[in-house]
Amino acid sequence: MSSAQQFLNYIQFEKRYSLHTVKAYSDDLDGFGVFIGQNTDKEIAFCEYKDIRSWVVFLTNQKYSKTSINRKISTLRAYYKYLLQHHIISQNPVSKLQMLKTEKKLPIFVEEIALEKLFSQIEFPNTYEGKLQKIIFEMFYATGMRVSELVNLRNSSINIESSTLKVLGKRNKERIIPMTHQLIIACGEYNQCKINDLGIYKNDDYYFLTKNGKKMNSRLVYQYINYYLGLVTTLGKKSPHVLRHSFATHLLNKGADLNAIKEMLGHSSLAATQVYTHNTIEKLKTVYKQAHPKA
After folding, report:
1. Global pTM?
2. Which residue in the list 72, 131, 194, 244 is annotated as catalytic?
3. Mapped to the 3 state alphabet, what secondary structure does the chain carry?
4. Is 241 a catalytic residue?
């Protein structure tokens, strides 16, 4: 078994990275392997700094974005760190390779007034699918969960008595998120809808089911979100992650503690959550310019 495959097995089965992440790492290593094979006679495990630097230059010349290149560098960093820890190599060739500088993009979010319009004025169809679409919006905006977390939510994950739900996040890390009163009511209505329309409600089942009684899939969720957000906002990007950004931004705007938001989002570090403070600062600047006599 190659060292690359050993590494991929390690991140999948021991580190418990998602299949999506494992595939991305695999694609990056394959791309690097092709480049090295065409330009040297080395195995990728024993490449030097100059080989990796040449690859970065090649990717830059091929017009890859800085974000994509940085992700590939991160893959190599993890790979060579694994090789070093397992004594396959004695020096890490990526240790002095710097990430490319990129402009930080502010998270895209939907204004509160637009989401208020969605929940109060937009009519969802009076069918099982319409009620499913509405509860999905309620769940995203009330919890800030990721789309992968939503489609894998179980009936047993929701505890109405304690007004909490348990989410299985990245790398199988569990977190508890409080439920709003409105979300509890919406869940009760959806639970009854499943019984009436589908005739099923088992505690070990997935919570969100299609009209055919199958597990909800991410593609269908994206379609729902894109369609209904298109009715209330002109944002170019209309995805579940935009609702996650909206959840965090609106909480911060209302004075929520940054550490509390971090825990609810399931971020591993506060740095990932602090990006939302920039949106708050931009909002303050706008208010200042509109209201101050000398602005």
Report:
1. 0.74
2. 244
3. CCHHHHHHHHHHHHCCCCHHHHHHHHHHHHHHHHHHHHHCCCCHHHCCHHHHHHHHHHHHHCCCCHHHHHHHHHHHHHHHHHHHHCCCCCCCCCCCCCCCCCCCCCCCCCCHHHHHHHHHHCCCCCCHHHHHHHHHHHHHHHHCCCHHHHHCCEHHHEECCCCEEEEECHHHCEEEEECCHHHHHHHHHHHHHHHHHHCCCCCCCECCECCCCCECCHHHHHHHHHHHHCCCCCCCCCCHHHHHHHHHHHHHHCCCCHHHHHHHHCCCCHHHHHHHHHHHHHHHHHHHHHHCCCC
4. yes
